[in-house]
Amino acid sequence: MPSITPARPLPECVTRASCPECGTGLLTVRSDRKFHCACGSSVPGRDLGLNSGRVWAVTRAGHPLSLPDPAAAWQRYVAARTVMENPSKWGPELDAAHRVFLGALAELEAARLLGVQLPAGSDVQIGRVYLACVLNPDGTLSGSNASALGWPCEPCSPSATDPYFQKRYPCRNPRAHVWGQVRDWEKNLRPGEPSRYVVRAPLAPDLRTARRLAAAKCAARAAALTA
Length: 227
Ligand SMILES: [Zn+2]
Ligand SMILES: [Zn+2]
Description:
This protein has 3 domains: 15-68, no CATH class; 70-113; 130-226, no CATH class. The chain is built from 4 helices and 11 strands. Strand 5 (54-58) and strand 6 form a beta hairpin. It has 227 residues and is α+β, with helices and mostly antiparallel strands. One zinc ion binds next to loops.
């Protein structure tokens, strides 16, 4: 699971809890299960005020954060998706559904990246970047095509008769896209030629991180196979 490092800004929906005594200090949990501040105060978890509709998470470094309840975000996500899958919904209603979908998705991704449990049955694609990867002959990563939930996507949009007007709607099926891509590539293999195409789907907050994680995994596998 990726950890949130100070170098990376927190997702917009995530709030860092500050010390109730001095108002500004960064709290850190210690082995006594209390949150300690540099000003000397220590706060039991139950005394940290939490607004309704939000839940706690604690970073790997022990700092408490609050974020929107993923159960509520999941309900909004499902409702928006239902509108998006309905071909009779169009115009402002569909635009509104796209906005709700992207907002709920951002909250669910924040929860997944912070290790907060998502509701049972929620979309396994949340928080992942799907990569259709081309490998070098030695098994290391050569290049990849990426897809992720919510990214602007042509296959997830109705086809326009004139390509000039083809829209790009928020993606809902990144996993299916990259597997379809790999199967298309494999059709061009000569008989007996080994496939150099794989799918990787790391949990990652952005494309750069996803490509780095996928490259590391391919390199590790290549090293294991040649060892
Ligand atoms: Zn303090
Ligand atoms: Zn898509």
